[in-house]
Automatic annotation (TrEMBL):
Signal peptide: none annotated. The keyword DNA-binding does not apply. The keyword Cell cycle does not apply. This is PQ-loop-domain-containing protein. InterPro entries: LAAT-1 (IPR051415), PQ-loop_rpt (IPR006603). Keywords: Membrane, Transmembrane, Transmembrane helix. It is a multi-pass membrane protein. Belongs to the laat-1 family. It catalyses: L-histidine(out) + L-arginine(in) = L-histidine(in) + L-arginine(out). The chain crosses the membrane at residues 12-30, 42-63, 69-90, 135-155, 213-233, 245-265. It comes from the Eukaryota. GO terms for cellular component: lytic vacuole membrane.
Length: 281
């Protein structure tokens, strides 16, 4: 069954957004595993993000949404919990490796890098092999996101426009209030989660933080907002979805700020390295 172009575009953008949110956690989980540390993340950032995801999960359950929506909300919450487990597990593991000797402890404090595993190791990999190892996971994630959009388009061509059983006016009013409450609560939580991470970055200079986490978050929020706008530009519809639009837009702004922090500290570190090498020569 054919569907109109606006609905198809909205579905494709929605599929891409879901793809972004499925892979958004993977780069940071991988980064933590490689460094054997989760200190690049703010604990409050992850906890508040988890509260936002739990809010979405509760809303999906209360509203009786499709099982796929509930599963996705549960998946997001599980990924948040995995990040928290990584942070505290690597802290615990590092404490076990710390010797009680005061001299050793002092040397660790002054000389040990902020993040375990950040010390370069001698390898026999070529430049192309290192690049492949570094970017292959991200390339796979991007391909998955694109495939999500294509799959959504394919599903749209074969889906009908059937509607569920109509609700009574009282049910509609109750569900509308519930949706708005959940929407604005999630928006505030997602927005607030970035603040502690931004302050954390000033201290850690974004060490141990994967920029792909925020790149995919930006892509997910942008495509999600566009999918809402593509579905309809009627005032009533936009007002009803105002919490998600506002939350997505403001979160994108803060995520861009985090990326600016990341690239600023990376460029500053590169300049310092060049100055040191220039002084030695």
């Amino acid at each position: 069954m054919l569907i109109d172009g606006d609905k198809m575009l909205s579905t494709i953008l929605g599929g891409i957004s879901i793809g972004c949110w499925i892979v958004v956690y993977s780069p940071q989980i991988l980064e933590n595993y490689q460094l054997q540390s989760g200190e690049g993340l703010s604990v409050f950032f992850v906890i508040i993000w988890l509260l936002g995801d739990l809010c979405n999960l509760g809303g999906a359950l209360l509203a009786g949404l499709l099982p796929t929506v509930i599963i996705l909300a549960l998946y997001y919450s599980i990924c948040d919990i995995i990040l928290l487990i990584q942070i505290y597990y690597y802290r615990w593991a590092r404490s076990l490796r710390t010797e009680p000797n005061s001299i050793t402890a002092e040397r660790d404090t002054e000389e040990t890098p902020l993040l375990v595993g950040s010390t370069p190791e001698c390898t026999h990999e070529t430049g192309s092999q290192r690049l492949l190892k570094l970017y292959a996971p991200y390339a796979a994630a991007v391909l998955f996101v694109i495939a999500s959009g294509v799959f959504s388009w394919w599903i749209s061509l074969r889906s009908g426009n059937g509607k569920g059983a109509p609700q009574s006016p009282s049910e509609l009013e109750t569900s509308e209030w519930t949706i708005q409450l959940i929407g604005w609560s999630s928006a505030v939580l997602y927005l607030g989660s970035r603040i502690p991470q931004i302050f954390k970055n000033f201290k850690t200079k974004c060490e141990g933080l994967s920029p792909a986490l925020f790149l995919f978050a930006i892509a997910g929020n942008v495509t999600y907002a566009l999918s809402i706008c593509a579905a309809s530009m009627e005032r009533e519809y936009l007002v009803r979805n105002g919490s998600w639009l506002a939350g997505s837009a403001l979160t994108v702004f803060l995520d861009i700020f985090v990326l600016c922090q990341f690239f600023y500290y990376r460029s500053s570190g590169s300049r310092e390295s060049e100055e040191i090498l220039g002084g030695e020569s």
